[in-house]
Amino acid sequence: MAATKLKVTLTGSLAGQLNNIQSSVRGLGLRRIRDSRVVADTPENRGMIRTAQHLLRVEEA
C-alpha cells in the first residue's frame, strides 16, 4: 500500500499572520509565495494545513 502524498503550495503572504500559522507553514517546508512541497498525508501534516488553509492550495501528488 503506497502512502498518499499531497502537493502544498503557498499562495498568500505570511506577513501579519499569527505565529502558529507562520510556524505551521514553515513546518510544511514552505518559504515564499508560490513555493511548493510534496508532503505525506499524515494527521500531523493535515493539522498544519488546516491551520493555514487560507494561505495554501492543496492537491494530490
Structure description:
- By secondary structure, this protein is an alpha+beta fold.
- The chain has a single domain, classed as Ribosomal protein L30/L7 (Ribosomal Protein L30, Chain: A, 2-Layer Sandwich), CATH 3.30.1390.20.
- It has two helices and three strands, in the order E-H-E-H-E.
- It has helices at residues 19-27, 43-51, and strands spanning 5-10, 36-40, 56-60.
- It is globular.
- The model has no long low-confidence stretch (mean pLDDT 95).
CATH fold-level topology: Ribosomal Protein L30, Chain: A
Classify the helix fraction into a percent range: 25-40%
Q: What share of residues are in beta strands? A: 25-35%
> Architecture, CATH level 2?
2-Layer Sandwich
Distance between the termini: 16 Å
Per DSSP E runs of 2 or more residues, the count of β-strands stands at 3
> What is the overall silhouette?
globular
Task: Give the tally of structural domains.
Answer: 1
Count of helix runs: 2
SSE order, as H and E?
EHEHE
Instruction: Give the strand line-up of the largest sheet.
Output: 2-1-3
* Rg for CA atoms: 11 Å
Structural class: alpha+beta
Quick one: CATH class?
Alpha Beta
Sheet of most strands: 3 strands, antiparallel
Query: What would the average pLDDT be, to the nearest integer?
Result: 95
